[in-house]
Amino acid sequence: MDRKTDMTEAATLSIAIVGSGGSGAVTTGKILLEGIARHGLYALMSRSSGPQIRGGESAVMLRIGQSSVDALDDDFDILLALDWLNVERFSDEIPVTEESLILHDPDKGDLPAVYAQMTHRHVARPLEQLAKSIENGRANMVGLGLLANLIGLPLAVVNAAAHDILKHKGEVVLQATLSCIETGYAQTPDETLVLPLSAPEAITERWNISGNEASGFGALQGGVRFVAAYPITPASEILEWLAPNLEQTGGSLLQAEDELASINMIIGASFGGVPSLTATSGPGLSLMMEGLGLAVASETPVVVANVMRGGPSTGIPTKSEQSDLNLALYGFHGDAPHIVLSALSIRDCAFTTQWAVKLTETLQAVAIVLTDQSLGQARAVIAPPRQPALEGKRKLAGDTDHYQRYALSDDAVSPMAIPGNAHCIYTADGLEHNEQGTPSAMATDHQQQLDKRRQKLTQFEYGDDWAEVTGDGEICLITWGSATGATREAAQRLSQAGLPTKTLAVRLLAPFSTERFKQVTAHAKQILVVEQNHGGQFFEYLNAQRVLPGHAHSLAQPGPLPLRPNVIYNRVMQGL
User: Residue 54: its pLDDT value, please?
Assistant: First the structure.
């Protein structure tokens, strides 16, 4: 029942590159991705590696299209093997069919059985021998030339991309690279083995960016000027990108000794009036929960960018899974209202993180932004991200003789004083308090402050950015985060098969937009909730919100393999 539409086959091309550590598979992928961007196309590139800390095998997986690409396809059209070291570890991640084409070096051994049994379409070229004929030559660059010519990328475009990626290595390396690429171009078979890519008539602006870089960009655009964090896979690239760019905007980044220090540092910076953020993954978020409770109680705005990975415990640090949802929603002790957001694509990482910063500043609240390894560490060629409409300014206290930091008001957001204002001194700690900020155990004060902290979030008008709705039909696929790309593509395939299907991708997870959700799903006769975790956490959360009808079903697939469109398509075609 697997199915690809004619649109999918014509509009996209999927390529995998594999090799041992040091073979240059990732570098090959980066240059190819940059060339695709320069050619005016879109693409998504993810990568995979073995369990070793250093060395071992690696793989790069790309999907190229003439429009935005937000998910890998069901299988791969081309596999370029620089060598075959432990390639069996990638057989589940890099499925091929009898129509797939394999490019390989015959001197690196026979095709592994897992691939030889699937396809007989091979192109063998002595990549390493050809590279040795060029001083400082590299086999991966010969392979790049072969591959690029095969898919229709002009030599000048690939050379320009190689220059951009490798210019820091010096002129000797660069000239050797260009010679290897040209040699690879000359090795391309005369017959047409794949449908070449065609560039659009008009090339618009493209960004080549990773999800983690996009999250850092969104934070910077939102106004973040202080970051404290402890490195952790797969979130560290956010910090690596922000470190130099924060400095250029007058901000600073501090590498803390652990996650406990990180969260308390950004609370302190925000208390001092500086929009602040930390980045982490599941184990780090667990450690931050007590500090985040302090931020909720003291109404100090902070943002946590949480890049999810396979769990629990150390789990699978280099693989993706949407399994921190329950932690983000329910990990706080006590009644601690806060904001939880999920980015729906690599491009959306920028928008959602920027929106999170603006929401926290406006509402004096905690926001947790959920992405994951498949978004954070993947790269994509995208259109420039859009900007939130929300201004996102903190309500500041003016001079007054009767300052009440936690005063009750219609919007439940009270003016926040910055340290140094002699007329606006108050206590900000984790104890419950009255309107002035004086610690209090009175039932009335507790009730009023609980209501205040909840109402400022639930009464706020979030607008249409709470979710993205695409398509229309009596079948409704509901999803969140990185599962959005595969879910939308499955919906497109279903619609083309005569089953009109709507996709609802939720960005604002908490507070939940109950009435809007019910309006979107009101006429759905079939509902499937799609997510990448084992326990169906989003499905259970929606049931807890009492927004799903009894006929709704769950498709919950854990990592480490990516969620592919055909899995969702088949589930619907089989009658849920």
Answer: 61
d(Cα 105, Cα 85) in Å, to the nearest integer?
A: 13
Q: 360 and 260 share a domain?
A: yes
Rounded alpha-carbon distances, angstroms, from residue 213 to 281, 341, 349, 367, 573:
16, 17, 9, 19, 38
Mean pLDDT for the stretch of residues 538-543: 98
Angstrom CA distances, 220 to 35, 216, 557, stand at: 28, 6, 34
Final residue belonging to a domain, choices 441, 460, 479: 460
Is residue 279 located within the same domain as residue 309?
yes
Long-range contacts of 515-520 (CB under 8 A, 24+ apart): 516/466, 516/467, 517/467, 517/545, 517/547, 518/547, 520/467, 520/469, 520/476
pTM of the complete model beyond 0.70: yes
Q: Which pLDDT value is given to residue 50?
A: 66
Residue 263 has pLDDT above 50, yes or no: yes
Q: Is residue 169 part of a domain?
A: yes
How many structural domains comprise the chain?
Answer: 4
In degrees and rounded to multiples of 5, residue 280 shows phi and psi of: -160, -175
Q: Using CA atoms, how far apart are residues 15 and 77, in angstroms rounded to an integer?
A: 6
Tell me which of 429, 460, 491 is where a domain ends.
460
470 and 447 fall within a common domain:
no
Nearest in space to 101 (alpha carbons), one of 83, 118, 86: 118
Domain that holds residue 295: 208-382
